[in-house]
Amino acid sequence: MEEKATTSTTFAYWKKIVILLCLGWVTIWIYRSALSPVYPQIRESLGGNVSDTALGSISSFYFLGYVIMQIPAGFLVDKIGKKKVLLPGFIVFGLAALLISQASSIAVIYAGSLLAGLGCGSFYGSAYSLTSQNIPKDKKSFSTAIVNSGSAVGSGLGLILSSYLVAQKGLPWQTMMYITAFMVVCMLVAFTVIVRNHKDDMRALQIAEEAEAKAEKVESEPVTKQKVSFSKLFSLKMISVYILYFATCYGYYMTVTWLPNFLGTERGFQGAAIGFSASLVAFASIPGALFFSRLADKFMHRKVQFIIVLEVLAALMLLFTVQATNATFLLIALILYGFLGKLAVEPIIIAWLGENAPQIGIGTTLGVFNFFGMMSSVIAPALTGGISDVTGSKVMGFYIAVILLVVGAVAFMLVNIKNKAKA
């Protein structure tokens, strides 16, 4: 009876975690996507003398803060627990949104963006440590896809609300920052109520690992003695997945940051149509993520093949997007990029990573992994803005993303083929 009660409680807890983390990503991505559709309004409010490079750097400062926090946050997750990292991080995030809403200069927006990135940087390691340690193995890819779908929902809502409320209805661009701050308060309450304390979490993990070892009749090393080794963190296999994730994130964050502006300035889209069209990438990714992660759970030994195929197809869709000769072709390419791209492949990459990383110290491993991936999010917005200032077009930014995706997929494939041959 006691064993059944424990299992039932654990089952209920991981379902709550999936819903909670999904909503966490919704909140973060509403903020992330809310500013890019209103760059013209931000430029106007700052006096009109702001270049594309300067506007793109708003995202770069956010992602700089986000990247800086990845390894420290991962270490702290393992040391003091997810809850004690999540709560201060989201408090900083909420305060940063309020700071941006009061900004009267681009420098203040940069400062707020940096703080927002530092605050949101607490989320990744905490979130995927929770999924890695609490979700059953046969449901990890699918459950991670549900968590990740919060990114798509938040991105789509941010783009649509920002375009509709600001670009079309004429509300101040700061409106989206107030909405973000309200949602952050709601998430702080939810984290406080639902997420376990560190000691309870570690005890639950130890019980689960002991039960698994007993069921498999194998000896299990005590949880407290396992350590993350530097050589494992930077083995050739892990470096290949860092490169792959860098390329995946580069294409996605370049698109998220500059697609609304690209559609408006280079493809003739106007008003709410900009936000709606750009949000197709996000919304199309939800069925893609759920479908492919379900397949990956069913064919667990095929994760590498799924990852490589999805990355190459996503690169093709980005190429078709930039070469589209009419609006219909462009929108079809965007939908397919969303269906096949980052949010579809990311749950499978994270599930693959979970199989190749130690469970104790998983926060540190995820922090290093996300650090390398998110470095691209610092580079892509500012670089594409610079390309636009020099050439008058953002097309070259799309081509760079396509090349990186192909290079990342090939590197990951070659390393895994080599490892398979050795095995």
Structure characteristics:
Growth Hormone, Chain: A, mainly alpha, globular, 423 residues
Question: How do the helices and strands line up, and which of them pair or pack?
Answer:
Elements: H1 2-34, H2 39-45, H3 52-80, H4 82-101, H5 106-120, H6 123-134, H7 140-168, H8 175-194, H9 198-216, H10 230-233, H11 236-266, H12 272-298, H13 303-323, H14 327-340, H15 342-355, H16 362-391, H17 395-422
* CATH class value: Mainly Alpha
> CATH superfamily assignment?
MFS general substrate transporter like domains
Into which percentage range does the β-strand content fall? under 5%
Q: Low-confidence parts, pLDDT < 50 over ≥5 residues?
A: 1-10, 215-225
Q: Judging from the principal axes of the Cα atoms, what is the shape?
A: globular
Count of separate structural domains: 1
* CATH arch. level architecture: Up-down Bundle
Number of helices: 17
By secondary-structure content and strand pairing, the structural class works out as mainly alpha
Largest sheet, in brief, is: none
